[in-house]
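Today's session is about reading a structure prediction critically. Students often jump straight to the picture, but the first step is always the sequence itself: look for stretches that repeat, for charged clusters, for runs of hydrophobic residues. Only then move on to the predicted structure, which in these notes is written as discrete structure tokens rather than atom positions. Here is the chain we will use throughout the hour.
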Amino acid sequence: MQTEILPIEHPDIVDLAADTISSGGPVAFPTDTVYGVGVDAFKADAIQKLFVIKERDTSRAVPILLGEISHLSRIVGEMSYKALRTAEAFWPGPLTLVVPRHPTLPHILAPGETIGVRMPDHAAALSLLKRTGPLAVTSANRSGAPSPRTAREVFEQLGGRIPLILDGGTTPGGIPSTVIDCTGEEIRLIRHGPVSLQEINALFA
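Below is the predicted structure for this chain, in token form.
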């Protein structure tokens, strides 16, 4: 497979990336942390490709990225008030919500009944996500290798394995997103990150 690298400023880049994803192909693109590689979140065959491309264990869940809060209804089986209020307050940004998965999501996304979902704070990623709808996205590296922060680093690991890389320069990297469990009555912290549990709880004080 030939891998094409195109600048994020290319006038047809969103159309090209959306067409690739619509046809079941993976696309790598920059986010507010590192480069991710994503596919249509509702295509099981495409999600399977992610595991093969990355040489990743299928027991590991693949999170979903959104471009609009309104897309949550397609991902979540039941959305609590606290989960929705938290998303509205901190998205786009470094906060991942673990929520009950919608029954229409392919089982291969995650072994359990929940799914992680986030809206990245990156203009190019949001433009693509608004066009494509929810994407199953994981870091654009081979499993166990460093997460890439440039298009060239993506190519060094996944060149010949994916058809398209969107070059948006160097990503910020840094601290991974905060992860919270929104499946119960109270929000529970799973992983510390840029957004603190105190900030989240202050919304409901």
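Discussion point for the tutorial: The mean pLDDT is 95.
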